[in-house]
Design a protein that fits this description.
single chain; 221 residues; alpha/beta; seven-stranded mixed sheet; 8 helices; 7 strands; 15% strand
Length: 221
């Protein structure tokens, strides 16, 4: 990563993607004084989880998720910009238009490193679509000015297909911050947190959350 005027941009589609997927790494960057901004694609208004016990419905879910994101961002000490797309529709957005929008926001924020989903390994269509658009957006930037792209890949066959990640961070020192960020997403995270609470701290599931892995995207031109 560049040594001058670093600024990390996290570009995921949903509130809570940043907390589950990268909040330990985000906390590491913040501890080093590096600014982090989350460009959140949607408000996750089509999510299936409505809280446990249920406290939201299809009409109100987006309001809760917006507030949860604000709380998580406060705990992580990061900026947030809402990109304004509709949940579960990113795969239908024209790629060139979505990429042009992202390019403008990347340049406006002066991003030097971008964290996003690895297209094809994101499990959710929104994850894959936004990751693909990020790659296209950065391709549209002059090579000497391009930020690095770190890809978060979560499908089960990731390492079989892609090999070992380029970056593996043990975020145990930042676990308290990661757990607090996850808990902020109350409508989505209750089941996950109950699972964590019922397992030993050294269980495979908990340890997996404490290791954040990213692949560096390589451009051929």
């Amino acid at each position: 990563m560049r040594n001058k005027e670093k600024h990390v941009l996290v570009i995921f589609p949903h509130p809570d993607d940043e907390s589950f997927g990268a909040s330990g790494t985000i906390s590491k960057f913040r501890s080093e004084g590096i600014p982090v901004t989350y460009l959140c694609g949607t408000l996750g208004e089509m999510g299936r989880n409505m809280g446990s016990p249920v406290f939201a419905n299809r009409e109100t879910l987006y309001t809760f998720r917006k507030k949860e994101l604000q709380e998580a961002s406060r705990k992580l000490d990061i900026n947030v910009e809402l990109l304004g797309y509709r949940d579960k529709t990113l795969e239908f957005e024209p790629l060139e238009e979505l990429a042009s929008h992202l390019k403008a926001r990347i340049l406006a924020w002066g991003g030097t490193t971008i964290i996003t989903h690895y297209p094809g390994y994101g499990v959710h269509p929104d994850h894959d679509a936004l990751g693909r658009a990020v790659v296209k957006a950065v391709e549209m930037i002059e090579p000497e000015a391009r930020p690095e792209i770190w890809m978060h890949a979560i499908s089960n066959d990731t390492e079989d297909q892609l090999g070992k990640p380029d970056f593996i961070f043990d975020v145990t020192p930042y676990w308290d911050k990661k757990e607090a960020a996850i808990r902020s997403h109350l409508s989505q995270a209750d089941g996950m947190m109950k699972l964590i609470e019922t397992q030993d701290k050294d269980s495979e599931h908990v340890q997996r959350l404490k290791m954040e892995r990213f692949y560096r995207w390589t451009f051929t031109t």
